[in-house]
Amino acid sequence: MAVAPLKVSMEPAPVIRFRRKVMPLVMGLSLLAPAELLLQQHGAQAAPRVPASAGLKAQSFVAEAVARSGPAVVTLETQRTVRTAAGSGLPEGLMIDPFFQRFFGLQGSAPPRARVERGQGSGVIFDGQGLVLTNAHVVENMDRVMVGLPDGRRVSGEVVGQDPVTDLAVVKLQGGGLWPTAPLGDSDRLRVGDWAIAVGNPFGLENTVTLGIVSNLNRNVSQLGIQGKRLDLIQTDAAINPGNSGGPLLNSAGEVVGINTLVRSGPGAGLGFAIPINRAKTIALQLVNQGRASHPMVGIGLSTIPAPTPGGIVPPGAVVRSVMPGGPGALAGLQVNDVIVAVAGQPVRNPAEVVTAIDRSGVGQPLVLNVQRQGKQLPVTVRPVEMRALKMR
Predict the structure, then answer these.
(1) Tens digit of pLDDT for each residue in 152-179?
(2) 250, 267, 290: which is the final residue of a domain?
(3) Sign (positive/negative) of CA torsion 222, 225, 228, 232?
(4) pTM score, two decimals?
(5) Which one of the listed residues 69, 88, 122, 137 is annotated catalytic?
(6) Is the residue at 66 inside a domain?
(7) Active-site residue 295, yes or no?
């Protein structure tokens, strides 16, 4: 089937001519845009031009937060003298005794050698009297502590007290002067997802700031495989590196909400942890007033309640797995397999919350535990004792 050719008319397009106006160019003046020129021809006012950067702050909230607390973040340089036997590999006590020197044929040997170990950490001035809050492991067994301030001052520091259980210590700056202080916030008001700003001196690099968020709250150190500590930590993804220990964790307002204490290395690296400032304030006050911290205990071992089905939801509460003979828990009548569901009238979700409630109760104060036993619920009143007293039994 043949198709008739399509006839297309190619008429020339109408020509539109514009009259070009010649406009003088003047140095230092910008030409009017066509829209602005049209508005002026009709006697209208052109809208003011808004710079592209208008409405954008020149500095971030991080800079403002650090400016508020940064002057109070200090560097702690520590040193201690370690004495070792000179090449014998024997303890120093044996080297001193002449009998053992003759026995091992070490008479006339060189005396024990001494070497100086140096360390570094961070801290934050929290009181105008020159009190610095830092980690206990930063100043533990140190002979000398030097404190460097961001304004260039270097002063000696005296360890007022330290608490290995919570890894907190207080150092007093020596000498007079006006000391900058950082405002302390309320760690109980933190929420997962809040901004977290870590300030410190990692690897000896002063005044380092990293930004992240609060990844989680109430992380018990036992979940990290750390024993002998009583800490519920703030978890953050803000970078915390060696040397950051003892430095502050700030919120978006520049308030101290935590004391940086450790970072996870190896698998899962990038997780940082800080001691909540509300807990740190309590310990710091005890260290300043008493020289040591108090840790109430009832002498029981706890674990989570097993899920009813594999992979199911873990019920709230804590199961008593062990009871120390003669301890407050045993004297109050607690038994293995009791389930603690509330402390002082407040429901508890896990063993960490039970420990926290006991810790806040104080030594010698009666504390009511609501316990489920064989399908029945009953109150048990315990009187916590000091940790040191419990260990001596």
Answers:
(1) 999 999 999 999 989 999 999 998 879 9
(2) 290
(3) negative
(4) 0.70
(5) 137
(6) no
(7) no
